[in-house]
Amino acid sequence: MSRRAGGGRRARRVRPAVSPARPGDYVFELEVPGYEEEELGIELLDHTRAVKGSRAETKEAEEKSYRLHERLERTFERTFTLPREVDGEHVTAEFDKGVLKVHAPKVATTQPRKVAITS
User: Fold this and answer.
1) What is the CATH number of domain 18-104?
2) Domain boundaries in the chain?
3) Nearest CA among 76, 77, 83 for reference residue 104
4) Which terminus of the chain has fewer CB atoms gathered within 10 Å of its CB, N or C?
């Protein structure tokens, strides 16, 4: 662990692992162990998706010779640009055992149609 001047510890930067898209609809899996569902958020603006997480831990210990009170806060934000073919209105997410899975369905493509030419 690195140290700053003055003996303080640097906060560790959290960057969840991501499994990218698979064939068919886009599915992103983010590993966020230790986070609860209510500590996570997903925002979608145009075709940019931001996944955010924030959690705080408080640790207290009292021994005969000292008293310890620590507060640890961890936050992260991952931003992804989604292809234009993603249907932003139907993006869904599920959370299970430390894995956040985001489903981004593709927009149904329109097939070309023939137009009759009249004289």
Assistant:
1) 2.60.40.790
2) 18-104
3) 83
4) C
